Amino acid sequence: VYSDLGEKQKALEYFSQSLPLSRAVSDRSMEAITLNNIGLVYSDLGEKHKALEYFSQSLPLSRAVGNAGKEALTLFNMADVKRHQKNLPEALNDIEASIKIIENLRTKIASPELRTSYFATVQNYYEFYIDLLMQLHKTYPKSGYDTKALEASERSRARSLLELLLESNANIRAGIDPDLLQQENRAKQQLDAIEKQRIEALSRPNPQQAKIDEIEKQRLTLLQEYQQIQTGIRSASPRYAALTQPQPLTLPEIQKQILDENTILLQYSLGEDRSYLWVVTSTGLTSYELPKRADIETAARNFRDAITSATYRNIPQKIAQASANLGQLILQPAAAQLGNKRLLIVPDGVLHYTPFPALTLPQTAGQKANIPLITQHEIITLPSASTLAILRQNYGDRKPPSQTLAILADPVFSPDDERIKGKITQATTEKLEANNLGLNRSLRASDRGWPPDRLPFTRQEAQTILSLVPSDSSSQKIDFSASRTTATDGSLANYQIVHFATHGIANNKNPELSGIVMSTVDDKGNLVNGFLRLTDIFNLKLAANLVVLSACQSGMGQNIKGEGMVGLTRGFMYAGAQRVAVSLWNVDDEGTAVLMQKFYQKMVQQKLAPAAALRAAQMEMMQQKKWQSPYYWAAFTLQGEWK
Hints:
six-stranded mixed sheet, globular, alpha/beta, single chain, about 50% helix, about 650 residues, five-stranded mixed sheet, 25 helices
């Protein structure tokens, strides 16, 4: 505490009293921790030699008592001191030894959630390692340190997703004790029951907040129990035990397995003092130093606000300025390399929320100003380059399903809906559309607006898209049949494209509680569980080339250090989708219906690949005065396979 308050001498006094007591009772673990802490205080005081002495005493003690976490921390601290002393090669040895321990500790954690949270706590080790390698690259530009830095960046991200994708193909429940599987089913049923209680509580005329809070608490407890059972299944599964840890790709593997001559990878790493961008082509690697994380965060937030805020989104100059500012920081250094190539973007931190298609590069002589990136490039985002390799490994030789398209749209959310009373007519639909122009497909991540408003344009969207596909190879689930039951009954496995047009909820604190809202009322007016949670999505069995989440914030979730955005996308990838189209903000209902119509026209009629079709649809909207603001067309992004 004294150290954190800046009272370093006082901190030293207390550590100096603690140290002989640890030694007197032979508590070597506490002795190692205290020596490490004394070293940190001396390091903060600028007495680096003295700090190193204490770290050097702490290290063998941590090893002797088998405290690998503390050993990794001490090595990291030693690396930091040696870098300050300009002893970069020794600093490199220490941080590499530290990261080796971290990688080993990480694999010993059975629960993906705990593995992810542990990995988030050690991201500063990777950040330090990358920065050190890039400093060495500056000094020795021909020694391949930039390649090592890119590979370290690849090792530092989306590792749990890689493991989940590998596991998704392994049927880890085979050979498991039936009792454990029964526990899992019971936990699922309890989660479903609490969900129904929640909907009932929210649907009362005067919802009691205390009751809703109590249900929410129970829901979280049940979710944790369910996750513990799943961890038990992984620990007991012979097939899970046989899985080898997927190794992130090296530079030559990225070039060979991921890229072609028309595709470039842009991989970002944001750091406290400076950030980095690696531009990888099928034949080369170039690295760039960018400004520090805080500067990029400010520019990225201003850009996103300019596009999404009702005040600014229709002021082109405001958007252009914010866009050029961010473009200058994160794209301008590499602008000459981009040409007209396809861009695979692996973002970091705040860049996960950034609509890259709407970004512009600052004007250069002879060029028109404010040309969005989408006009020159097809753009796909990835959690990591290695993710795409596993997706291809899992689904590359999969036989496409026999049916083309399944759409779930325009669910019923309220017992007062006209459809329950059988009064729905063309006039009712038109009246709804007139009243709901500009409605967002979102509950704004809040249940207080329950029941959510109906989204009339989702019906129109579904009908327009279906008119493009032969009726014998498509399926439309609207009204009451756009239900959670329909989504989970296994029938969606028969379709190449699965399209959801409804409300989405992104939960950035507990991503497992993110989901898609289906019909919460049946055709008799009874309330039913209509919430398709992330845990439900993980349990779907799909064979889809494409899942489209035409809902709000469907690409959002919890942005976890080292893992990226944890939300619906990874659930659908685990369930079997090769690529997922998702949104980054609360999208406009009518504008989204128009975009989706154009997107499917390009895919179905012009036979464009999904990434190319989305780009063409976005560019077409950009030309129309009503939809030219990026707010209407830039929210949707494609994640996963680009071919």
